[in-house]
Amino acid sequence: MPGTGTDGRIGGMTDFDVRPVTEDERRGTLDLLGRSLHTNRISDESWARYGDSWPAAHKFGAFDGTTPIGIASSFDTDIAVPGGAVLPLGAVDGIGVRADRTRRGVLTAMMAVQLEDFVARGIPLAALHASEPTIYGRFGYGSAALGKTVWLPRPAARLHDRVPAAGDVRMLTPQEALAEIPGLYRRIGLHRAGMIGRPAEWWPIAHDRLAGPTGSHVVAVHSGPDGDDGFVVYDTVDRRTLESPDEGAVLKVRELHAADPVARAALWRFLLSIDLVSGVRARYRPVDEPLAAMLADHRHARTADVEDDLWLRPVDVAAALAARAYRAADPVVLAVTDRQLPANTGHYEVTPDGTHRTDAAADLALDADTLGMLYLGQWSATALAEAGRIEVRTPGAAARADELFTTVTAPWCGTHF
Ligand SMILES: CC(=O)SCCNC(=O)CCNC(=O)[C@H](O)C(C)(C)COP(=O)(O)OP(=O)(O)OC[C@H]1O[C@@H](n2cnc3c(N)ncnc32)[C@H](O)[C@@H]1OP(=O)(O)O
Fold first, then answer.
1. Which residues form the N-acetyltransferase domain (predicted)?
2. Which side of the chain, N or C, has fewer Cβ within a 10 Å radius?
3. 114 lines ligand 1 (CB under 6 A)
């Protein structure tokens, strides 16, 4: 069976075996993950509520005897790529190594087994959100979609009069949200490269934040001429104190999804209309969301941060390159080097009509993680060459690659996992 029997023995200090997690080991490995991320031990009550979202499938643990010392988890879903195709995705949603066993190769062994498993199951792309940006490049993951944090102060920030906005916004009870939002997310669809499907096991934790005992999230839905077409999930942090009783609350947007610009504008207009709020903060928004242009005074859309959001790993380079669309331009030959999955190492010709392996000389040379950065269109080949990540072997080839790979819309994931 792929993924079993990887032994680790580093300097005689650590002995471990990487193998699939069994049913009985689910809770122990979730606890281990929680400890590594410095969250609380999972209570019986929480386990009863969302233990189902931690199935044994697609989890590999590093074990010292029967004791888990590392966990690498993923779930199967799909991802939209430039041009609109949707590809199977291994969504890596939980990585952790026990604090007394770090820096001895446990993660390295688990990542090798997880990648072999993706290969064996024919999954062409893997993705994750990184706790630290220095960890995953060595395993072939590249920062593929950025997200911006915006701050809109109230009451100063308001939409200008020509922003198209129609329809109604209504708030849902937690029970209505649980029933309606998964279907609405599906109907809105994966309309940007980088968006992923949300399988059944993704929802329970989100549900817990809505309807669980500590649930603080609020959901509002937009309805247009064809029915519900957008939703926002937010919560608030009260900043009123005795010293400043009028400070108001900060409204934190957890997610905002809309099928079209009208629904999106109406949801922003709604958020900016809520009383006793000193400002609206949203993290991981698409970098090209035109909030500044939507405001009467565009300086009130303050971009507080732009950070790495989705990291992408081409697992099957030929399949991944063949699946996305390219713009009209002269072909370019890429020399890809993949240290973890050497079968990917080779030359690929990219043309507007498709891609194929070739023996032709390469115009540009790059590693698998850099291909992950280039793939969704977030970074230009020119920028990656200037940053020393792409070696230009044929003068002018980076500009040609830019013409082929550029996308009009920035990639965006919009789902935390
Ligand atoms: C997708 C997600 O779930 S993101 C969440 C990731 N988890 C966490 O951040 C929880 C806290 N951290 C941990 O559990 C561990 O430190 C891990 C999982 C990040 C790393 O596990 P380890 O077993 O220590 O990694 P391993 O020993 O295989 O290290 C491999 C290489 O990566 C480097 N590395 C590992 N972690 C880090 C880090 N946090 N920062 C910088 N370099 C790192 C190591 O130095 C090593 O480099 P080398 O090959 O040049 O010697």
1. 16-164
2. N
3. no
- pTM to 2 decimal places: 0.95
Task: Give the tokens for residue 161.
Answer: 């009069």
SS3 41: coil
CATH classification code of 147-308: 3.40.630.30
Q: Is the CB of 10 under 6 A from ligand 1?
A: no
Residue 405 annotated among the catalytic residues of the structure: no
Name the burial class of residue 153, with classes exposed (0-12), middle (13-18) and buried (19+) by CB atoms within 10 angstroms of its CB: middle
- Tell me if residue 136 is catalytic: yes
Q: Are 256 and 275 in contact (CB under 8 A)?
A: no
How far CA 112 is from CA of 16, 150, 186, 293, in Å, comes to 14, 37, 32, 45
Could you tell me if 262 and 164 are in contact, meaning their C-beta atoms sit under 8 angstroms apart? yes
Residue 95 in contact with ligand 1 by CB distance below 6 A: yes
Return the structure tokens found at 252.
């934190």
* Per-residue model confidence as pLDDT tens digits over 183-219: 999 999 999 999 999 999 898 777 777 666 667 889 9
Separation CA 285–CA 412 (nearest Å): 8
Catalytic residue among 16, 60, 136, 348: 136
Binding-site residues for acetyl-CoA, in ranges, read: 95-97, 103-108, 131-132
Tell me the binding residues. 95-97, 103-108, 131-132
What's the pLDDT at 14? 62
Residues of the chain with CATH 3.40.630.30: 6-128, 147-308
Q: If you count them, how many residues does the chain have?
A: 417
Question: Taking a C-beta distance cutoff of 8 angstroms, is the pair 150, 304 a contact?
Answer: yes
Distance CA 413, CA 303 (A): 18
Could you tell me if 73 and 107 are in contact, meaning their C-beta atoms sit under 8 angstroms apart?
no
For ligand 1, whether the C-beta of 37 sits within 6 Å is: yes
Q: What is the mean pLDDT of residues 124-131?
A: 98
CA distance 79 to 85: 8
At the topology level, CATH places domain 316-405 in Nonspecific Lipid-transfer Protein; Chain A (3.30.1050)
